[in-house]
Amino acid sequence: MNLGDVFTDPAVARAYRQRAPYPPETFAILERLVVEPRTVLDAGAGNGALARSMIRFARRVDAVDPSVAMIDEGRRLPGGDDPRLHWITGTAEEAPLDPPYGLISAGSSLHWMDQARVVPRFAAALAPGARLAILETDDGEHPLPEMVQIFERYSELTHHTDLPDMLSTISRPDGVGCRHGSDAALEASGGWFVREGEQRTAAIGLRRSVEEYLEYLHSTSTLARVRLGDRADRFDADVRELFARHRMSFIERQVVGVVVWGRPVAP
């Protein structure tokens, strides 16, 4: 099973409810970015964490995701059955689209895609003046360093692709000579990306019980139960033991939304 295939598992899709939400300010930023015809493509939509809220200001949101389980879960969540929200099963590279779009969003999903294919495709699907918005949530350094050590013991990944990594990937194919600034057209694999702006939201508090936190961990590609296999129970025991050792029944984090926007341009 490839890491991306983890998200086809219904248990992982259900666990996604424990992911950190995007702060409300995130959607105010996206609303300012959307232009006519005020239709939005949410690429790699998952359970619709972005798409289900963007229907408040969009005429239509096309939520594309390759996982049937994720889409089924999204339909059950608040806003998931809104007639303005169109769920489309497929990859961002190949799913049928209905352009032009006044905004394309990719929330913690672009690193799962073939940028050489999707960057030019996004460019062709955008309306004049429309933007690609790349998003993630940032909850800072983990308050329990020992927890990070547990992750490192069980996870197959030695490095997590975060937003700066992704922007570097789509902006600097040769790894050198990056020019910064709103007018800098930076070649991406198979296309170009003109980065125009970035905004971080105010932080919101997020409190999870131990069991909710474990469920969140099982929503990730390398720590999902389907991926851990017979190590899953040992992993859960190690996490619970660490919380017990610190006499903690919950964990609190401060979550910031990060939005970077710009224009993908086909070569």
Describe this structure in words.
- The structure is a single chain.
- This protein is α/β, with parallel strands linked by helices.
- Helix content is 32%, strand content 27%.
- It is built from ten helices and nine strands.
- The chain has helices at 10-15, 24-33, 51-54, 68-76, 115-125, 145-154, 163-171, 210-217, 225-228, 232-245; strands at 39-43, 60-65, 85-89, 101-107, 126-138, 185-188, 191-200, 204-209, 250-265.
- Strands 1, 2, 3, 4, 5, 6, 7, 8 and 9 form a nine-stranded mixed sheet that branches.
- Helix 6 runs antiparallel to helix 10 (232-245).
- Residues 172-190 have low confidence and may be disordered.
